[in-house]
Design goal:
Layout (H helix, E strand, L loop, with lengths): L7 E2 L4 E6 L2 E6 L1 H7 L2 E5 L6 E2 L4 E7 L3 E5 L4 E6 L2 H4 L3 H4 L7 E5 L11 H11 L1
Antiparallel strand pairs: 1-2, 2-3, 3-9, 4-6, 5-8, 6-7, 8-9
Length: 127
């Protein structure tokens, strides 16, 4: 289980678990609840490279469809194919179920992400 206080967050309600030069990316509980029942996830190909802010996939629910954005420049090392078979896992436990693992190209970009405290305030303002 991921601990919220060890994660970084984006304004698109994605969490980032930094592990050395790699990052695991998923959506937050806030996003999962806002989307409702998630029915489809489109993930990128392994070895695809993205720039910070690029769309790397799509998440669809019964309410809406949304792009997923890469939080830092990187190359996809691994995708969570379980989500393609069972996207509802994101509703059950969004912190345990991730989209992609990337190799971070520029760790200084992590400074632009929010701390857990900043993310909490951000969510309170959006509610």
């Amino acid at each position: 289980m991921r601990e919220m206080e060890k994660l970084l967050f984006t304004t698109e309600h994605e969490w980032v678990d930094v592990q050395g030069d790699e990052a695991i990316i998923g959506i937050t509980d806030f996003a999962s609840k806002a989307l409702g029942d998630i029915v489809f996830v489109e993930l990128p190909e392994v070895e695809e490279s993205y720039g910070m802010g690029d769309s790397f996939g799509v998440i669809e629910s019964v309410k809406a469809a949304a792009d997923m954005y890469i939080p830092v420049d990187g190359t996809v090392l691994e995708v969570n194919t379980e989500l393609e078979d069972d996207p509802a896992l994101l509703n059950q436990d969004p912190l345990a179920n991730w989209f992609v693992k990337i190799k971070i190209n520029d760790k200084s970009q992590l400074d632009e992400l929010m701390s857990p405290e900043d993310y909490q305030r951000f969510c309170e303002e959006e509610a």
